[in-house]
Design a protein that fits this description.
The structure is a homodimer. By secondary structure, the first copy, chain A, is α+β, with helices and mostly antiparallel strands. Chain A has a single domain (7-142), classed as 2,3-Dihydroxybiphenyl 1,2-Dioxygenase, domain 1 (Roll). Chain A has 3 helices and 9 strands; from the N terminus they run E-H-E-E-H-E-H-E-E-E-E-E. The first copy, chain A, has a 7-stranded mixed β-sheet with strand order 2-3-1-4-7-6-5. Chain A has a two-stranded antiparallel ribbon with strand order 8-9. In chain A, strand 6 and strand 7 form a beta hairpin. The longest helix of chain A is centred in the middle third of the chain and has 14 residues, at 84-97. In chain A, 47% of the residues are buried. At the A-B interface, strand 1, helix 1, strand 2 and helix 3 of A face strand 1, helix 1, strand 2 and helix 3 of B.
């Protein structure tokens, strides 16, 4: 891995409410993606996505449980790679380093390749190849405008 | 707020273990700060800090409880501002947008100014002024080398 983060995704209960909140803070969404809100944040991106979808995507159970008003974690960090095959390579490296593989490399519903691992403290990382996003030489991410 | 993230801090149980893990992934720490590990990640930074210290800093109780092996959240996102007084301003804006103020603006032990708020889903944001960190015109962060 290079020293970089492509995307931080915050799990939210109510996407409209979360979007309104971040817009009130001064954040401007990028594009119009149903079910998810992206913000370009200099060389990376911030996303709002429902906790349910986020958990399903990472193949983990972070749904709220009785007596717990908020699920554990609820945040993923994505590291985008330049080639589809790099997803598998980075996940293998993470496993060797002691990560728990949550989801092996596979084709994502949005057309790229994705996989997830958890670090020793349970922080969830996605390794993703997204042909619709631009990565510059230094790995800075540029979201598509639409 | 501008569309940017200055720092993502992951709460960890064992700092040495976490550092070893991230180094094995390929990450290179920046500087030598006792009790915390920083990584320059293009225009932002990633930090590893103990959950205990992180919780204390945000003035929240995220310590592990009986029957729960991992605390809630355990991640903070920092938004660094250009002037000390901006910390107060941004926290006031967040409060107006519906955030819960976790820690009002005050002088930080590391010499700057800091405050925390939680978004509607409980995600913790720090607003910080750190005179030792460089912010470029676009708000990209540059860590000091030592």
């Amino acid at each position: 891995m290079e020293n970089r983060i492509s995307l931080v995704t915050l799990g939210v209960r109510d996407l409209a409410r979360a979007r309104t909140f971040y817009e009130a803070l001064g954040w401007t969404p990028c594009g119009n993606n149903p079910g998810v809100v992206f913000f370009q944040a200099n060389g990376m991106a911030l996303a709002l996505w429902t906790t349910t979808e986020l958990a399903k995507d990472a193949k983990v159970n972070i749904a709220p449980r009785a007596g717990r008003d908020r699920p554990f974690g609820n945040v993923t960090i994505a590291y985008n790679v330049r080639n589809r095959r790099d997803v598998k390579t980075e996940l293998a490296r993470a496993k060797k380093a002691g990560a728990k593989i949550l989801r092996p490399a596979e084709t994502a519903f949005w057309g790229g390749e994705t996989g997830y691992f958890a670090d020793p403290d349970g922080h969830m990382w996605e390794v993703a190849w997204n042909p619709q996003w631009t990565l510059d030489r230094k790995g800075n991410v540029k979201l598509p405008k639409t």
